[in-house]
Design brief:
Elements lengths: L1 H21 L7 H23 L4 H17 L16
Helix pairs in contact: 1-2, 1-3, 2-3
Protein name: Integral membrane protein
Keywords: Membrane, Transmembrane, Transmembrane helix
Length: 89
């Protein structure tokens, strides 16, 4: 159980590092990215473990990766500057 939690936290760190390295211009500060990814991975591990019970570790790590990636995707900003005009009142 402890190794499963440590593995999901490490997976969250790896995903955060990859996202911060690949998309630095579209993400907020690095500490927020790393904290969000690790928290998402731990939450994903908890939810997957609660739903599946004593399932294989690979399934819980897959659930942790999915939730961590989804939480990281919520931090992304648009790629370019969009110039939108507000509709007249």
């Amino acid at each position: 159980m402890i190794l499963e939690v440590l593995g999901s936290a490490a997976l969250g760190l790896v995903l955060a590092f990859a996202a911060a390295h690949r998309l630095p211009h579209r993400l907020p500060t690095r500490p927020l990215v790393f904290a969000t990814a690790v928290a998402g991975a731990l939450f994903g591990d908890f939810v997957t473990h609660s739903a599946l019970g004593p399932a294989p570790v690979l399934l819980t790590l897959l659930g942790a990766a999915v939730v961590s990636a989804a939480s990281l995707s919520l931090l992304l900003r648009p790629a370019g500057r969009l110039r939108r005009r507000s509709a007249p009142a």
